[in-house]
Amino acid sequence: MVARDLAIRVLTMTGGLVLAIVLGPGAFGVWAVGLGLVAALQAVTRSGLGATLLRRAEAPSEGELNALFTFQICFGLVAAAGGLGLAFGLLPALGARAEEAQAIGLALLALPISSPRVAPACVLERELQYVPLSVMDVTEQLALYGVAVSLAALGAGIWSLAPAACASAAAGVAAGLVVSPVRVRLTRRLGVLRRIWRFGAAFQLSESLYAVRDGGLNLLLLTFSGASVTGVWALAQRLLVAPVVLFQTVGRVGFVAFSKVASREEDERQAQRVLGITALAAAALLATIVGSAPALVGGVLGREWEGVILPVTLAAVGWMVLGPLWVALWGLVQARGDLRAPLLGGAVQLVVLWTAAIAFAPRFGAEAIGAAFLAALVATAALLYVNSRRFLRLRLTTLAHAALIATAAAAAGRAVADQMPTLTGLPLAVAAALAVWSVLAMALMPRDLQMLATEAGVSRILGGRAPTGA
User: Fold this and answer.
1) Strand, coil or helix: what is 466?
2) So what's the pLDDT on residue 465?
3) Mapping DSSP to helix (H, G, I), strand (E, B) and coil, where does residue 470 land?
4) Angle at 334 (CA atoms; ends 67, 133), nearest 5 degrees
5) What average pLDDT does this structure show over 352-378?
6) Taking 60 as the threshold, does the pLDDT of residue 74 lie above it?
7) CA-to-CA distance for 425 and 427, rounded, in angstroms?
8) Coil, strand, or helix at residue 379?
């Protein structure tokens, strides 16, 4: 499942890079703001209630799925109407650039279109049916970037955003109808959601904070620093898609798996194992990205994107600290019903990043956001680790070894890329980083390297304890 999701995100990253090259930093920044805003608003309704249905023992009823669908389509319609009113009315009247606001506002039409996808996806994830989910994700991404790149190449610029977002939403719904037997309809009986609302609201808030963090950050960057700085930071985030999806994928399955495990000893064994494997895999991914960044800019993206190198490096360091801990611990604390660390971590990141966007980015550009992102992720890692000690004791020696390996491998790749910032230097820099990673992994983490090489999927990484049915 990790391999499938990584393949999906490779498609996402590739599509984003092509779009960045076609649009340039300014238009790509506006495009990223609109897409991020759609994702943030989708997260507000998708995560919490669905997570409650994943967490509990009994399967969701037809009435609950219909109520979930009705709630989400109503929210999508209200959000789209409000966004269009702001984009075509209030914001231009207040002096905002009408074209940018309207392009972003039209993209919100994707919200009600995507609503029928959520209930089938919830049922499939509960049953750990990740192949159909991957089909839905792939279909969405193909539609999104296929339409966006085609229209951008024809000169549509930022007006490619809304058709691409709506096409992606429609494609995801169509794929869901094909791969899932679940069918939903509108209902007036929303009262069935009351019994799952309490935990769902808290979980939803913790998850939504991160989507709101990113959507609000992009809006603030666009407002205070301009579209070019926004585009540079958006591209930095795109370059880190592969390691981030590794964390998200394994962590998502971990939430379901930890919900089924009641033994502290088993929790500790599984968490420690997942920490080592994920940290070593993250070291390889992050080191190759950081090490090859100058060659990627010089040989593929173009010198207009040179400002992305330092922000992506700083953000990668932050993910090396938080990512493996997130995978090993986040699902555990959420499965135990303790949402304090997720909520506090999300709030800290939001405050730090938004403050940096307002106070420092206008002067220092995307580099300020990269530094703030690093600080926020390290703070979140500390909060998560301290809070998790109520449930288990996790040894951090593995993470320290992986961070050392990542640093040395990235330095080797960067040495090559700095000398050869061309398309030819790109594979050489990647090869240098992976060679150093391999040697140090065999020397410092041989057991984790062996497990990483032999594991076939997430369910096996978690010890095969996650059930395949409701």
Assistant:
1) coil
2) 36
3) coil
4) 55
5) 95
6) yes
7) 6
8) helix
